[in-house]
Amino acid sequence: MLLRAARSLGTLPSTAAWRESALIGLAALLLIAGLAAASGLLRYEPRFDPLLLTVFFIPALTEELIFRGPLPGRGESARPIVWYAAGVLVFVLWHIVEALTFLPRATLFFTPGFLLIAAVLGTACAALRYRTGSLWPAVVLHGVVVLLWQAQFGGPSAAELMQG
Length: 164
Known about the structure:
The protein has one domain (2-162). The N and C termini lie far apart (35 Å). It contains seven helices and no strands. It is mainly alpha-helical.
C-alpha cells in the first residue's frame, strides 16, 4: 500500500489525462456547488488570507495520500470498485471522526449535505486517481474545492473549526 501511494505521487499525468481530469473536476465542481447551494452550505462571502493556500497540503495532499494513494491502479485488482467505494466511505466517515475529536466546532461535518458533498468529492478524486494513476489531479481538485469554499463561499477555515 505504501508503494502504491509513493507510485501515485511519482506519476505525472499526460496532457490528455489532465484534460480528462479537468472535465471530471468541472463536473464534480458543478455537482458540489449545486448540492452546497441546496443544503445551505454555499453563500457568497469572499475573504482573502494567504494561509488559505495551505489547503493544498492540509487537507488536500494529506487526505488524498491517505485515502486514495494506497488504492490499486488499473489492472492491480480484480475488483477495483470495491477498493474505491471503501475508500470513499472511509473518507466520509473520517470527517465525522475529525468533528468528534480535534475539530470541535466542525458540527457541519455531521450534516447530510456536507457528508453527501464529501462523498461526491471523494468519488471524483477516486475516479481521477484510478483514471490517471496519479494522485495529483485528485489533490488539485480537493484543494480547489476547499479553497473556493473557504475563500469565496463562506466555508470555515481549519483554525475556526479547531477553536474550542
